[in-house]
Design a protein that fits this description.
Blueprint lengths: L10 H22 L17 H24 L9 H11 L4 H20 L9 E3 L5 E3 L2 H16 L11 H18 L5 E5 L6 E2 L7 E5 L1 H8 L16
Helix pairs in contact: 1-4, 1-5, 2-3, 2-4, 2-5, 6-7
């Protein structure tokens, strides 16, 4: 039997889906390398065990699948009923048995992948609303998931690092982080300048801005709050 293919014919979207699937496979590999007992160990996120990270990534797939279903049917299906419900869901997921926790990740990832696969070209431009209240086209759900699986694979604290994340994803993650800083008014006149790159991120129009430099992986880790390359300028943890 021939495997079913994505209905979309957009090459950019197909490439984005490939990156999301590669990230999902990478997260799965780092999760499966952990023994059941090791799931109780600390993640890189304050107050979260590896169980919390696995539960969050599993439930995130279900939440994003609800947005894709919204785009497909026109029936509004929010990611979460509320921020409190999201947090309670993660806390509950962290209490699941190891096999149930692993099944949550596996089954939710497959479900999301099927929803993406069966969404026709015309529906990818339909608008949905993120948990933060942003109205975005359904195509944005691919990046939303890509960011989650690659970043949280590192947070499993099982040997993965930002050097394992493809450069285009690191650059887009830096775009997201620095845009959020600007929106919140917390950019503090910072420019992030990857070594070997002609592109800067952050407050690039400010000649008096402080500059953070390093490899693309190093400064993305710092901007995401997961590295102390500059202890005088700590960045908040990006979840």
């Amino acid at each position: 039997m021939v495997a079913r293919q994505d209905l979309t014919s957009d090459p950019r979207l197909q490439d984005a889906l490939l990156q999301a699937r590669r990230g999902t496979a990478f997260f799965a590999r780092k999760l499966n390398e952990l023994s059941d007992d090791e799931l109780d160990g600390d993640s890189l996120l304050p107050g979260w065990t590896r169980r919390h990270v696995a539960a969050h990534v599993g439930y995130n797939a279900r939440a994003i699948a609800r947005l894709v279903e919204w785009a497909a049917t026109g029936v509004e299906t929010p990611m979460y009923p509320s921020p409190q419900a999201r947090n309670q869901e993660i806390d509950f997921g962290a209490t699941l048995s190891p096999i149930a926790l692993r099944n949550l990740f596996d089954h939710s990832s497959v479900h999301l992948n099927v929803e993406w696969r069966d969404l026709p070209d015309a529906s990818w431009s339909n608008h949905v609303k993120t948990a933060q209240g942003r109205t975005v086209p359904a195509s944005e759900t691919v990046w939303m998931r890509t960011r989650e699986v690659w970043l949280h694979a590192v947070d499993l604290n099982n040997g993965a690092g930002f050097n394992d994340i493809p450069a285009p994803i690191l650059e887009r993650l830096l775009d997201d982080i620095t845009a959020a800083w600007k929106t919140r008014g917390t950019d503090n006149g910072l420019v992030i300048a990857p070594r070997g790159s002609e592109r800067g991120f952050g407050d690039v129009s400010n000649p008096d801005a402080a500059t953070i430099t390093g490899t693309l992986a190093e400064i993305t880790a710092w901007a995401a709050g997961r590295s102390g390359i500059d202890a005088t300028l700590p960045a908040p943890v990006w979840i």
